[in-house]
Design a protein that fits this description.
Blueprint (H helix, E strand, L loop, with lengths): L4 H10 L6 H22 L30 H4 L6 E2 L2 E2 L7
Antiparallel strand pairs: 1-2
Length: about 100
């Protein structure tokens, strides 16, 4: 795949990037070099190679999936002006 000057200008316009004529010509060469490198990568035979998620094999640390109250109820309501059984008490505002 090759990028020409018109394609660079069109992409710059779609991205709303102001590109001068000289910059567009320079970018054409740079983008073609990048695409050439990607084409080289496509030639590598990777059949039989498992995809990896990390450079070093490791498992995520997991906590047990259990429902708890967080053991923080007393701490949460400690600064409230009025509480009852770890619930906030507020004045009635609707009649």
């Amino acid at each position: 795949m090759s990028v020409d000057l018109q394609t660079v200008k069109r992409v710059a316009r779609l991205a709303r990037i102001a590109v001068s004529e000289a910059d567009a010509e320079r970018m054409t060469g740079e983008l073609n070099a990048i695409l050439g490198f990607v084409e080289q990568l496509n030639e590598v035979d990777v059949s039989g190679v498992e995809p990896m998620t990390s450079v070093t094999p490791m498992e995520m640390k997991k906590r047990p999936d259990v429902v708890t109250d967080g053991s923080k109820a007393a701490d949460i309501v400690a600064n409230a002006p009025a509480t009852e059984e770890n619930f906030f008490l507020v004045p009635k505002v609707v009649e």
